Amino acid sequence: MQEIPTIFGISLCLFPLLPTLACSDADGASSTGTHGSGAGTGGSGGAGGSGPRSLKTRIAFGSCMHQDKKKPVLELARASAPDLFVFLGDNIYGDSDDIAMLQAKYDKLAASPEFQGLLEAVPVIATWDDHDYGANDAGKEFPQKAATKDLFLDFWKEPAGSPRRTREGIYTSYLHEEPGGTLQIILLDTRWFRDPLDANSDPAKYKHDYQPTTDKSRTMLGDAQWAWLEGELKKPADVRIIGTSTQFGHEYNGYESWTNMPHERQRMVDLIRDTGAEATLFISGDVHWGELSRLETAGGYPLYDVTSSGITETWPEIEENANRVGSPVAENNYGFVEITWGEADHALSLGIVDVAGTTRVEHEVSTRELRF
Prior knowledge:
Elements: E1 6-7, E2 10-11, E3 22-23, E4 56-62, H1 72-79, E5 84-87, H2 99-110, H3 113-121, E6 124-126, H4 130-133, H5 145-155, H6 163-166, E7 172-178, E8 181-187, E9 198-199, E10 210-211, H7 222-233, E11 239-244, H8 262-274, E12 280-284, E13 290-295, E14 303-307, E15 324-329, E16 333-340, E17 347-354, E18 359-366
Parallel strand pairs: 4-5, 5-6, 8-11, 11-12, 12-14
Antiparallel strand pairs: 1-2, 3-7, 4-16, 7-8, 9-10, 13-14, 13-15, 16-17, 17-18
């Protein structure tokens, strides 16, 4: 019998229709396994063991992890005993179209003791951002994206039959059924299909590298990924987490994010509303600081975006953000979403923990506040 990987302490199904954390792609096939083995039955991770299962689910996540640097944040994340860790991109700093060089950088990450320790204890899933995609700020024009996709999927141990192997891009989703409800995790690909951004043409008016485009033909996700996402958001789920490598809910600051294509961000807001996808929130990375943003939407509920960045990287200056809840975190950090499952409503704790192990951001919200 084929060995079935595990996640959240239960089987990660390699076949459709079983009620575990499995691919929820519209074609019904499994999209991915998980990298890491310690959280299965009898494993050493927080979700392992054979005792009664908690009515809490804790998802940890982070981004911006240089392969050459120490990674104490991963040790802290492991110690918090999450049920899953999500890598949100810039998982290596590849920045090359030399595939051998990129492979060597993945090899260096694989040899990291902190990374190995996390994999031993916690299942992980991943998407990419520009530096593991292959070039700083790159989009659909990057010529080596097919080759770097193969490297990415091989490193994260994507099964041979996964839809991620056969379609363009690396987007995917997962469903996890708890006694109290169903969690959906959607990982977007904001690189493969993304059109070029508009460079800052007026530094007196705009900030840093980019300005919001007025060209509504530009896309972040591409037609195929948008169509797939609509199908995913129509599936029943009690809590949805959308992982996007770049920020979604913050105020424009001139760096890469959804704010550079405001029509695409509005398309996402509209899609969530039109599909009736309640209790949806975002997790993101990229910017080398941590923060929680709350985006108010017309005719809908507020969309939270927990940004955790970076695992090893920092930035000299944190940008203003009128949508920020609480204070930013300049130090290395990881983020978390903890769900306490209830009968009718579920309590969400959204937070960021710094490299000293201090919880710097923690915000409580009920799913009853995230309804239409």
